[in-house]
Design a protein that fits this description.
The structure holds 2 protein chains of 2 kinds. By secondary structure, chain A is an alpha+beta fold. Chain A has helices at about 5-25, 30-40, 50-60, 80-110; strands at about 30, 60-65, 75-80. In chain A, a hairpin with a 7-residue loop joins strand 2 and strand 3 (about 75-80). The chains are: A alpha+beta, B alpha/beta. The interface of A and B includes residues 30 and 50 of A. Chain B: It is a single-pass membrane protein.
């Protein structure tokens, strides 16, 4: 059992949830999504995000449109689809449950801290 | 001065340093390989390129500026290593295969069973073993070892079966056949996967091949022929080496099994005291240590090198196997040296214990008329020996009269000597080895030897007996018969078997028991021999 594997798995689910959450607020192109994720220290290197985005798009959770940019080639703007919103809601529910469960379990184990 | 290359990256135009270009190209190719089974690979790559272009343009002051290596390296640092692009670790391949089998279950028209094809991609000869290995779902190596074993056990007749299979079984050529051989369901995604893998291989091959082809164009036909010949020879040599490897593995494996079985059987018999091997002086268990321990020691000494040979054979067959772990090797070698040291210790101990000889001498007068002819006879004991001969080794026999085991020796040396006394005398010297003289004498005193004088017949036993505790000692008996001058004597034919050649003047007694001898002026004379001359002349 490798620590990296477990960490990667934990992060992967959370990462999808976060990307969808970012896009729920507003449509964004990759650099903007990356900025948020980096600021939250959820990812270290950018490479990870591209396969994820493509998969979410292929799963019809995301869609994109091309938009002109000021000083460069057109950019891919990602947006949530209807399906993506439903998916995100389900994920939020799961996340809250998980958070509650994890908090309960981990804090029960260390009662000294309270 | 550096060459620059113009590239279009994510629909943007860049001047890029040649070295930086190579680094960037390798990076993108590596990502491509990592995402080989990813559905939207091209799209992902396009996105990545676009992002890299964006990162470049952030830094570049003008459109004329050249992208340098350090810039590419900075971007790679931001984007991450190719492995970072793979979000999923090995667990996802599991779910992938699961979903594949699931989808396969839905497509009922496809068979899930494996089909037997020859695998010509992993062949050594015809790929029969490789195909069988796929079919049975085991490693090719084991299948080959099995074939080698069958080959030897069947005295080579399995070769015929191999050739028949080679001819009869078709090779897996198409992608569908390859998938069927591996037992993977034949569906679009699998075929696509396989084709992609092959395409990747083919492109790489083509890339390398072009260079080789270009290089070969400049070479003469002779050089090319020689090169091809060398290639064929090296392939043949490779096969030969592998065969040697198989033979090595086979023989070493069998020896190991044999040694292990004998170790288990002998060792456990001794350890559990089922039978007492100590009674026997046959075999290698000559040391004063428990047989199972000696067995273990000998097993270590013999099995360790064989085990290494076995591993070496496996290594020859498959270079990729990592068999020689340093710790194991060190432990085995240490055990081996320990075993050798132990045997040396036992040997030296045994050598020391038997280096002194103790002797006990008994002299007895033989009351008889010197005018009579003394008849000397060797009397065998048919219970202890089927034939009469002299042997320096002791034997353990069962004495039915005492119902006990008894040590029997026939290391008897007989000689006739002249004496000035008027009466014949017999001198019996018993000798035994021991750790010191005293022990040697004590051992010698346990030697039981019988002879008797019956009128003018001297009856000598052709054996002596002793306690079985002396089985490892060298026991020896010297008999010297002192006869007055001119006294006549004759011997039976067995006496000459036990003659002591140290007294060569008085040996070479005729086997003809009718001949009568006498000692005259310290010479042995045959009085009835046809030539009637001193026997000693033969020796002079």
């Amino acid at each position: 059992m490798k620590l990296e594997n477990t960490q990667a798995q934990m992060r992967k689910g959370v990462l999808e949830y976060c990307i969808l959450s970012i896009l729920k607020r507003d449509d964004a192109y990759v650099a903007e999504i990356l900025e948020s994720l980096k600021a939250a220290k959820l990812i270290v290197v950018e490479g990870t995000i591209y396969p994820l985005l493509t998969r979410l798009k292929n799963a019809d959770l995301l869609e994109y449109r091309w938009e002109e940019s000021t000083g460069g080639p057109p950019r891919k703007y990602y947006a949530l689809t209807q399906e993506g919103e439903t998916f995100l809601e389900a994920l939020s529910q799961t996340w809250n449950d998980l958070q509650f469960a994890v908090k309960n379990i981990t804090e029960y184990k260390t009662p000294n801290h309270e | 001065m550096n060459k620059t290359i113009n590239v279009s990256l994510g629909k943007q135009f860049f001047h890029i340093d040649e070295e930086a270009f190579i680094v960037l190209k390798n990076y993108l190719d590596a990502i491509k390989r990592y995402l080989i089974n990813e559905e939207g690979r091209d799209e992902i790559l396009a996105d990545v390129e676009a992002r890299i272009a964006e990162l470049f343009s952030e830094k570049l002051q003008s459109e004329r500026e050249v992208v340098q290596v350090h810039e590419v390296e900075r971007v790679i640092k931001i984007m991450g290593q190719p492995s970072d692009y793979k979000v999923e670790q090995e667990d996802d391949t599991y779910t992938n295969t699961q979903s594949e089998t699931y989808s396969n279950r839905q497509n009922t028209q496809q068979s899930t069973g494996k089909k037997f094809y020859r695998d010509e991609e992993k062949n050594l000869l015809g790929g029969v073993c490789a195909g069988l290995a796929h079919n049975f779902g085991i490693d090719i190596l084991w299948m080959r070892i099995l074939w080698m074993v069958l080959f030897f056990l069947s005295y080579g007749t399995f070769t015929i079966l191999y050739v028949v299979l080679w001819i009869v079984v078709p090779a897996a050529r198409t992608t569908a056949q390859k998938l069927a051989m591996m037992g993977e369901p034949i569906n679009i995604s699998n075929i696509e996967k396989k084709v992609k893998e092959n395409a990747e291989k083919a492109t790489n091959y083509a890339k390398n091949f072009d260079y080789e082809k270009a290089a070969q164009n400049g070479k003469s036909t002779v050089t090319r022929f020689v090169e091809q010949l060398t290639e064929i020879l090296s392939k043949v040599a490779n096969v030969l080496v592998k065969i040697i490897g198989f033979i090595l593995v086979f023989i070493a494996g069998l020896s190991l099994v044999g040694m292990f079985i004998s170790f288990i059987s002998f060792g456990s018999i001794s350890f559990l005291n089922i039978a007492d091997f100590n009674l026997s002086n046959e075999g290698p268990f000559v040391f004063e240590a428990p047989v199972w321990l000696q067995m273990l020691t000998f097993f270590c000494i013999a099995a360790t090198p064989v085990y290494f040979l076995f591993l070496a054979g496996l290594k020859i067959i498959n270079h990729k196997l990592k068999l020689f772990k340093l710790r194991t090797v060190v432990i085995l070698l240490a055990l081996w040296f320990l075993a050798i040291a132990y045997v040396s210790f036992l040997g030296i101990k045994k050598g020391i214990s038997s280096n002194s000889i103790g002797e006990i001498v008994e002299i007895q007068e033989l009351p008889m008329q010197t005018s009579d002819t003394l008849s000397i006879k060797m009397i065998p004991n048919l219970t202890f020996a089927e034939s009469i001969y002299r042997s320096s080794s002791n034997q353990i026999k069962y004495d039915s009269s005492t119902e006990e085991d008894i040590l029997v020796g026939t290391s008897i040396y007989f000689a006739v000597q002249p004496t000035t006394d008027s009466i014949p005398k017999i001198r019996v010297s018993k000798k035994s080895t021991g750790s010191n003289n005293k022990e040697g004498r004590l051992n010698a005193s346990q030697i039981d030897y019988q002879f008797k004088l019956n009128k003018n017949e001297l009856l000598l036993d052709s054996y002596f007996t002793s306690d079985i505790s002396l089985k490892d000692e060298d026991l020896k008996l010297n008999i010297i018969l002192y006869l007055p001058e001119n006294m006549h004597f004759k011997t039976d034919k067995y006496v000459s078997t036990f003659e002591d050649y140290k007294y060569h003047k008085f040996v070479n007694l005729n086997v003809n028991s009718n001949d009568v001898y006498q000692i005259q002026n310290t010479e042995l004379i045959c009085t009835t021999c046809t030539k009637n001359e001193p026997k000693t002349e033969n020796h002079e």
